[in-house]
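Q: I'm building a small set of examples for a reading group on sequence design. Run inverse folding on the following structure and report the sequence directly after it, with nothing in between.
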């Protein structure tokens, strides 16, 4: 069984059908629908807590800090129900305050890659997040016991491990601001500093 909020589904296809029907029933426009928040916590790459969502047909964007970002809700249907994915999500959630602090302190108005104006996103530059987290897990294997953190989903149930990970990430991470199209084209290759495929 696949659980999304208070709903249970027998297959990923059943989740997808329900989401399509649910989006159509809600209609286009902004929403704070609880099912969508529960669905979002299953995304294998995103760890932030959105403020709300915007529906446009079958497209779904999340709003965070006034910025609207399109995301793959089908990835949420597939979920992240394996220990490796759970660990990655916990690691992303742990560093989220640092990412937000960097965003708040930026005066950049142009994408670092293409120089375009628009809504910018924080990106790991030079060493991708995926490399930093994999290197750290190689040094200090991730715990497999988690606790719920409200709408944010799972977090490590080991505050000391979380603290060590945050310190390591702070030593390694370099950030830049990218527009959504450039950030969406990223790969995990360390030589070009690009990260976003997961």
């Amino acid at each position: 069984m696949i659980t999304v909020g208070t709903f249970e589904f027998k297959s990923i296809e059943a989740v997808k059908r329900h989401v399509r029907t649910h989006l159509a029933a809600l209609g286009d426009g902004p929403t704070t629908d609880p099912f969508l928040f529960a669905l979002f916590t299953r995304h294998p790459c995103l760890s932030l807590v959105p403020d709300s969502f915007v529906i446009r047909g079958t497209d779904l964007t999340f709003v965070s800090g006034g910025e609207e970002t399109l995301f793959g809700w089908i990835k949420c249907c597939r979920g992240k129900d394996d220990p490796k994915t759970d660990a990655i999500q916990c690691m992303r959630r742990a560093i989220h305050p640092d990412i937000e602090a960097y965003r708040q302190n930026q005066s950049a108005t142009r994408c670092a890659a293409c120089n375009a104006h628009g809504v910018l996103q924080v990106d790991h530059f030079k060493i991708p997040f995926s490399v930093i987290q994999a290197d750290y897990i190689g040094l200090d294997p991730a715990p497999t016991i988690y606790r719920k953190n409200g709408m944010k989903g799972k977090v490590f149930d080991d505050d000391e491990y979380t603290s060590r990970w945050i310190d390591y990430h702070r030593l390694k991470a370099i950030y830049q601001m990218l527009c959504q199209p450039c950030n969406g084209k990223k790969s995990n290759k360390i030589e070009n500093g690009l990260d976003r495929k997961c």
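The CA atoms of residues 19 and 25 lie 10 Å apart.
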